[in-house]
Design a protein that fits this description.
With 234 residues, the protein is of the alpha/beta class. The protein is built from nine helices and eight strands. Helix 2 runs antiparallel to helix 3.
């Protein structure tokens, strides 16, 4: 396998980086409560996101036993249902599964395919194994390997999750590139010794002035061009 700019394996975040998570949740909320105004959808989305983020922090801090993303999504859906007055059990169940039906960004499928021509490519997600399976199928994402934080029973940015990817990569951390639209995710990867690439998305967590990632690009296609422009024999 050829090496490109010292990179041997590429690891990609999924939620937000490869698929539009907030957009998919908005769609699911509109389907669950037809006729809801956008202000209400915005509020319910915030309720959902704040619940999931809070519970992830609790799990990582050891304040709650591990619960996978499917459980957290179900809890979030039930909280939103309470705010929205949604009482149909089937509608709540479908809303809880919204994370399995997220749409890819325009360059995700093609960019991933181009990356896979040059590198082993690994998906690394906080989504549960079951959610990740269905999401990959729905969005058309094709990996050489897809890993879930469920395997180590904590969530990114806990170091155990990045070590999971490094074990799968089977090479030194400095030869593994983490790709994400979330600066917090890349900081975790950098702390684990990985190289980092920030991909700008309409959602996500942009870098701070103090962040020093190896690449910062506007999209996945741009990253592929940056990487493959330096092809050398490996």
């Amino acid at each position: 396998m050829a090496e490109v700019r010292g990179v041997e394996v590429v690891v990609c975040d999924v939620l937000g980086t490869m698929v539009d998570e907030p957009g998919g949740l908005r769609t699911a909320l509109r389907e669950a409560v037809p006729g809801a105004d956008e202000a209400s959808v915005d509020r319910w989305l915030t309720v959902w996101q704040e619940h999931v983020e809070h519970e992830i922090r609790r799990v990582n801090a050891g304040e709650r036993p591990y619960a996978d993303s499917g459980v957290l999504d179900r809890e979030a859906a039930e909280r939103v249902a309470g705010y929205a007055g949604l009482t149909d059990a089937d509608a709540v169940a479908r809303l809880a599964g919204a994370g399995r039906r997220l749409e890819p960004w325009d360059d995700s499928v093609s960019g991933l395919a181009r990356l896979a021509e040059r590198f082993p490519v690994v998906g690394l997600s906080n989504a549960s194994r079951a959610t990740l399976l269905r999401l990959n199928e729905h969005a058309g994402l094709r990996w050489h390997q897809a890993l879930s934080a469920e395997d180590v029973r904590v969530y990114k940015p806990s170091p155990e999750v990045y070590r999971l990817a490094l074990t799968a990569a089977g090479c030194p951390p400095e030869r593994v590139l983490m790709v994400a639209a979330h600066a917090w995710d890349l900081r975790g990867a950098r702390a684990a010794g990985m190289r980092t690439a920030y991909v700008g998305r309409p959602v996500g967590d942009p870098p701070r002035p103090t962040d020093a990632f190896d690449w910062a690009v506007g999209g996945l296609d741009e990253l592929v061009s940056e990487l493959t422009g330096g092809l050398t024999a490996g």
